[in-house]
Amino acid sequence: MKPVRRRSTTRPLIIPLLGVVVAALAPVPASAAPAADAPGSGLGRHDRQLLAEARANGDPTVTMLIAAKPGSSDAVARGLQGLGGRIGYHDQALGYLRAEVPTARAEKAAAVSGVQAADLDEVVPLDDPRPDGATVPTPFPPPDSSTPRDNPYMPVGRPGPPRSPPPTPPGTAAA
Question: Of 135, 153, 132, which is closest to residue 144 (Cα–Cα)?
């Protein structure tokens, strides 16, 4: 008798199921409105906290690190100077500026036309990279007149291959 071949009833369900899975995993397009911390939208949350600390401490100026959009670093520099800022470093090829800006105008400085990103400079504390308990090693004393001519640190007493201990004669115990 010839075996009967059955059609799979699950095959027609697999393709629609895969389509649903792919659609569920597909990325959803972001809205056109810029986020608060998006590049070029002013200071981020951490920088606003640093600015609030500078205001509370009464600091007259803050140092800002600014990335300008390509080709607009000169215009950004003029805009910062117009706000009372002093340019400390300007690299036109990179579009990078470091400027001292009055604390009261830092948020306006971050929003100058042509600014791609702006951050307040800060000192980032780093942990001591030495392992716990590490001490400075005691230096090995240099050779002097009492150092024997033939020693393992300066093998100048005899040229040739290193010496090994003499073989133990058969029937004797090794020391």
Answer: 153
Which two structure tokens, joined as six digits, stand for 50? 């640093």
Q: Cβ of 100: how many Cβ atoms within 10 Å? A: 16
Which pLDDT tens digit goes with each residue over 8-49?
566 666 666 556 656 666 665 544 444 444 445 589 999 999
Token pair 């990335």 in the structure block, residue = 67
**What is the pTM (predicted TM-score) of this model?**
0.52
CATH code, domain carrying 103: 3.30.70.80
Give per-residue pLDDT as tens, 87-125. 999 999 999 999 999 999 999 999 999 999 999 999 888
Whether 104 is in a domain gets the answer yes
Closest of 52, 49, 97, 60 to residue 77, by C-alpha: 97
